[in-house]
Amino acid sequence: MLKLGVNIDHVATLREARYRNRGFGEPSPVEAAKICEAAGAHGITAHLREDRRHILDRDVWALREVVKTRLNLEMANAPEIIEIALKLKPDIVCIVPERRQEVTTEGGLDVVAAEKSLTETRKKLNDAGIEVSLFIAPDEKQIEASARTGSQFIELHTGQFAEEFHKAESGKRKAEIELPRLIAAAKQAHALGLKVNAGHGLNCENLPTLFRVPHLVELNIGHSLVSRAVFIGLENAVKEMLSLLRDYR
Ligand code: PXP
Question: What Å distances lie between residue 24 and 19, 29, 61, 68, CA to CA?
Answer without folding.
Answer: 7, 12, 15, 24
